[in-house]
Design a protein that fits this description.
Length: 200
């Protein structure tokens, strides 16, 4: 089964403030008891979206109805740091995000996101600040991540050069971003090679 080629992602944006947002803040450990990743979306950023004492919603951007339709997450430096839990990008994907734009990413988070077909691209601090201002002025503003042209554009005229490791960009645009699916698609070749190996 061929994977979708991910050449562009377009959606509304929301900025989540803070540097060094780690995977425990993205998905608290107590919600990782699931057998599958289904249902993790509702727990994304749970401990900062809800008051730990009252359970009431906080002023977190994801609780703001203006950003209810946002699918592009804007963030700062070292997004996704901390433990290597795959649940973090899974929770964002299940929440409804299709891409993340940040100043920088933790390497394992970046890799786990890529294998979900969720592009993570970097922009400068100033570029992200401009996108943040645009979406906060008008939450309907659309942001496009063009992986082929290596650009990020907004519906109000922004255009920025994005950065992404070429190996990840190539995997996304060529539809080879899921290594497990790659193995499944090449089962006949794997079996043929195994038959030639005396120790298998």
């Amino acid at each position: 089964m061929a994977l979708d080629k991910i050449t562009q992602v377009t959606g509304r944006g929301v900025f989540v403030p803070g540097a060094d947002i780690d995977t425990d803040r993205i998905i608290p450990a107590r919600f990782m008891k699931c057998v599958t990743f289904d249902g993790l979306g509702e727990f994304a950023f749970y401990d900062v979206r809800f008051d730990p004492t009252t359970g009431e919603k906080t002023q977190h951007p994801l609780n703001d109805e203006r950003f209810a339709k946002a699918t592009v997450l804007l963030a700062g430096v070292n997004f996704g740091c901390g433990s290597s839990r795959e649940h973090a990008p899974q929770s964002l994907r299940k929440y409804g995000f299709t891409a993340v734009i940040a100043e920088s990413f933790a390497e394992i988070f970046f890799g786990n996101s890529t294998t979900l077909g969720m592009p993570c691209v970097t922009l400068s601090h100033d570029a992200i600040a401009e996108l943040r201002a645009a979406v906060e002025a008008d939450p309907a503003t659309e942001i496009t991540i063009d992986l082929e042209a290596k650009k990020v554009r907004s519906g109000v005229g922004h255009e920025f050069d994005l950065a992404i490791p070429e190996s990840a960009r190539d995997a996304l645009v060529s539809g080879r971003w899921d290594p497990i699916q790659e193995l499944i698609d090449h089962t006949p070749q794997i079996e043929a090679t195994a038959e030639k190996l005396h120790y298998v």
